[in-house]
Known about the structure:
CATH topology of the largest domain: Aspartate Aminotransferase, domain 2
CATH class of the largest domain: Alpha Beta
Number of strands: 14
Bound molecules: 4'-deoxy-4'-aminopyridoxal-5'-phosphate
Number of helices: 9
Helix content: 25-40%
Shape: globular
Structural class: alpha/beta
Radius of gyration: 21 Å
Strand order of the largest sheet: 2-10-9-8-5-3-4
Distance between the termini: 34 Å
Order of helices and strands: EHHEHEHEEEEEEEHHHEEHEEH
Amino acid sequence: MNRIHxxxxxxxxxxxxxxxxxxxEFVDFRGHGSSLLEMSHRGKVYxxxxxxxxxxxxxxxxxxxxHVVFFMGGGARTQFALVPTNxxxxxxxxxxxxxxxxxxxxxxxxxxxxxxxxxxxxxxGHDRTPGxxxxxxxxxxxxLHYTSNNTIYGTQTAQPPxxxxxxxxxxxxxxxxxxxxxxxRYGLIYAGAQKNLGPAGVTLLILRKxxxxxxxxxxxxxxxxxxxxxxxxxxxxxxxYAIYLVGLVAKHMLATxxxxxxxxxxxxxxxxxxxxxxxDDFYAGHAQPGSRSTMNVTFRTPSADLDxxxxxxxxxxxxxxxxxxxxxxxxxxxxxxxxxxSSVEALVSFMKEFSRTRG
Length: 359
Ligand code: PMP
């Protein structure tokens, strides 16, 4: 099989060894005479898969006793509503809006109660993120929400905001485990799996245990962090196959240097790509240099027509998924954990050739 160079923003590339293992185990799961898809989530076989996934993610995240890991369905977007539902109580939630998803999280929370927008990059076309001390955080907030990596605009927050005693909540959907994360600083981290962790269909949550008490007793069970985490994500039937695949990705990460191994590879990939943009006047990056994402590299050629021609010609060369998101246009190369350095090398060669022949 001739695998494409996959620069899709998500769902996106998965490690080939993970796909091969999943294929080998698909029909007869580890000699049990049925597919994992056909087994009860209450049985021992799935239970082991589930608990191993939780244990491996905990190792990768360097989790201590203060936090609990659990899974929910509904994508990251469901969390835009469930975070305020569980964590705000009667207070006000603070937001840093650095892009499309951050703004979406803020507006969903506003439908459900009191919100204050403390910092936005909207007037700069979302080309930047704040430094850790750039945002004044009122100490009576219920929590502060930010988005660590802005998938569409290609910006990333290098250091999380300093929030004092206010719990820090982060949508880490597009850069979770792209580098080691100091989980102790967070009240809640959530991430849809379909970029760095596995397939769509499952969202990872890492919650500081003292915040479990904020989920009101009257909440419907499936909305309640306390109820879902209290049942080890099995209050209902969890997305078993997605969790199994996240487990395989976690094992693959552990075998390839963990989060710091990923960080080193990601830094090399991003340096290659931003280097190619900076070296050639034909290309212009969208993000301010200090806010550049290591996961989504956004750039453009001198015109929208050339952007379209670039994406079309790249696809013909096996370089897929480079069209920018419709809200910003231009081009975007998503270079998540599982995108190989050789794919980025191929893209850089293509960029040089395109600029030479079309510039
Ligand atoms: N947050 C971020 C940062 C995202 O990139 C995305 C999806 N691209 C979402 C939230 C929404 O995720 P989902 O489609 O899983 O609801």
